[in-house]
């Protein structure tokens, strides 16, 4: 009897121990994983908690710039750099074009030749003539009279309106100009629409447009001439006088008033139709500047075409050049001439056609003009 009681007690104890072991096994299986999934915190000496940050990528891995993103309202350093550079580039430009002739950066050759202080237009006063330049100019073509330059200028501005135009570049505008020469290479060029699309169009001497509109366009804003090449101006066109001598200044005064000047070194047009309020006269000192800096004394003095082109460099922001040089067969005739054996420009020896052509090509190579041949 006593033995049976002992066996019962042992059995009960065994059952209790079994149940306790089974309970612990269930807790380990179902409860431990939930704790191990939580982030682990480490106590700092101050009792504060520091969250463990995700590991950074290896330093030898180059980030993909196409995948680099910046959170909202977070500055993008590269974008800011580009914005600053673009702003500085815009501020450094003197005009409103993407590139400006008067900006001297990028071409040492151009910087050595171009003088931004030049005053291309003759004004009623404050011309600040260089005595050496005027002496040189007076020697180009002798006029055979005793009048002074200041006296002739004063009489001239009693007939024509003193200019008020400011040709300095401004960031608020982009002046695109076409300088259209008279070379036979304009024949069948098809440049007419491109020329007409420019803001200002410079033509020279006896340039003809009627019948050649497809190749040379039909718009003109500035027409450069001298007494021996004078033609009447259409309404709205500015006559720009290239005075090669003192007599030329007397001629423009007379041609727009009394008509008394009938001769220079040859018979000239006594009167010319032009708006007196639009007449401009190129500064005599500008001739010496072009001769010294640009044609470098090749030829006796620069040609009408070269003077007009350099004038454009000082009054425009971008310049496109058409109709300069010989045609593809090497002829130097005018585009309206049928005689391809013409070409007095090159034969006289007064101007150096070859050297001027080299200068024009260099201007194109340096990105200062767009040359259309």
Describe this structure in words.
The protein has 373 residues and is an alpha/beta fold. α7 (192-196) links the parallel β3 and β4 (200-204). The strands form two sheets. It has a seven-stranded parallel β-sheet, sandwiched between helices. A two-stranded antiparallel ribbon has the order 1-2. It has a domain at 108-161 and 176-372: Alpha-Beta Complex (sialyltransferase cstii, chain A). The radius of gyration is 42 Å and the shape is elongated. α5 (131-138) crosses α10 and α6 packs parallel to α9. It has helices spanning 2-30, 32-36, 77-92, 108-113, 131-138, 149-156, 192-196, 213-216, 246-255, 284-294, 304-315, 344-347, 353-365, and strands at 42-43, 49-50, 176-180, 200-204, 222-225, 238-241, 280-281, 318-322, 370-372. It has 13 helices and nine strands.
What is the H/E string? HHEEHHHHEHEHEEHEHHEHHE
**C-alpha end-to-end distance:** 133 Å
Q: What's the CATH class of the domain at 108-161 and 176-372, please?
A: Alpha Beta
Tell me, briefly, the overall form.
elongated
CATH architectural type of the domain at 108-161 and 176-372? Alpha-Beta Complex
Name the poorly predicted regions.
25-90
How many separate helices? Answer: 13
Largest sheet: 7 strands, parallel
DSSP summary, beta strand count: 9
Helix amount:
25-40%
| Computed structural class | alpha/beta
> What kind of oligomer do you see?
single chain
Q: Looking at CATH, which topology of the domain at 108-161 and 176-372 would you report?
A: sialyltransferase cstii, chain A
Radius of gyration: 42 Å
Biased composition (Basic and acidic residues): 78-93
Binding site for substrate: 141, 182, 205, 265, 301, 305, 325, 334, 351
Membrane topology: Single-pass type II membrane protein
Protein name: CMP-N-acetylneuraminate-beta-galactosamide-alpha-2,3-sialyltransferase 2
